[in-house]
């Protein structure tokens, strides 16, 4: 009887979600088309086919209305940076699906529905995708910081060889290994080709990444162009500065290593050492004849 009730509730939720769901699920809004180029959207469409099993749980139109109210651009930039090929509506739908799965799983296991289980399902289902998204973003930022000094060196070599900034940037992007920084620079080049100014495209990249080194790089280039300073000399100074910052960051990580090793040393290594060293002594003490008083 309880299983039948679960099935009826799930069916009603599916029907309610289908009432909000439109058949033109892959139709893109004009705002989204302006942000990314056609190739990226083509990849998004192809990847979204792998998530068709979640569509019955996604009130896509309702999610679009919610995101329009609270702001979708920030979430869209995070998904793009994390290389998660989902639209913001789909990401919100994944949260809704996870909440439903956790709710029915806890109800089936405990055989009852309590306010605590409902609240726990909502909290875990809503915030767990955000934790994964932030983890992916931090990983991408780490890769960007690792590739940034080498990119500055290549760009300075190209400009020193006689290329202008845009041609040198395109040469570096075309001949570099794919990484998150190259992908962001490709987006900058596409935005400039579609009519955006260089300042706006670079500042947009700095705003999306929110990395101090990238923001400093963009601000230095913008000020150098406005003041008429040679970009080659500016890039040489930036290259030295970024390499010095990377060396300082490596030193900070090396200084933090002993502190991070303290917990596993005390919990895992020290008990084993005590057992190896003190175990034979303790056994010999227990086996020996104790003096009687």
Produce a short descriptive summary.
By secondary structure, this protein is mostly helical.
Oligomer class: single chain
Low-confidence stretches: 15-58
Question: What is the CATH class of one domain?
Answer: Mainly Alpha
The portion of residues forming beta strands comes to under 5%
Helix content: over 70%
| Main sheet attributes: strand count, strand direction, barrel closure | none
Number of helical stretches of at least 4 residues: 12
Rg, Cα atoms, Å: 28 Å
Morphology call: flat
Mean model confidence by pLDDT: 77
CATH-assigned fold name of one domain: Receptor-associated Protein
Supply the CATH architecture of one domain.
Up-down Bundle
- What's the number of extended β-strand segments? 0
Order of secondary-structure elements: HHHHHHHHHHHH
Distance between the termini: 72 Å
CATH superfamily descriptor of one domain: Type II secretion system (T2SS), domain F
Helix and strand content put the structural class at mainly alpha
Description:
- The structure is a single chain.
- This protein has helices spanning 2-20, 30-35, 38-48, 60-70, 73-81, 88-110, 115-160, 165-175, 180-193, 198-209, 212-227, 231-287.
- By secondary structure, the chain is an all-alpha fold.
- The radius of gyration is 28 Å and the shape is flat.
Protein traits:
293 residues, mainly alpha, 80% helix
Task: Break the fold down into its secondary structure elements and pairings.
Layout: H1 2-20, H2 30-35, H3 38-48, H4 60-70, H5 73-81, H6 88-110, H7 115-160, H8 165-175, H9 180-193, H10 198-209, H11 212-227, H12 231-287
Helix pairs in contact: 4-6, 6-7, 7-8, 7-12, 8-9, 9-10, 10-11, 11-12
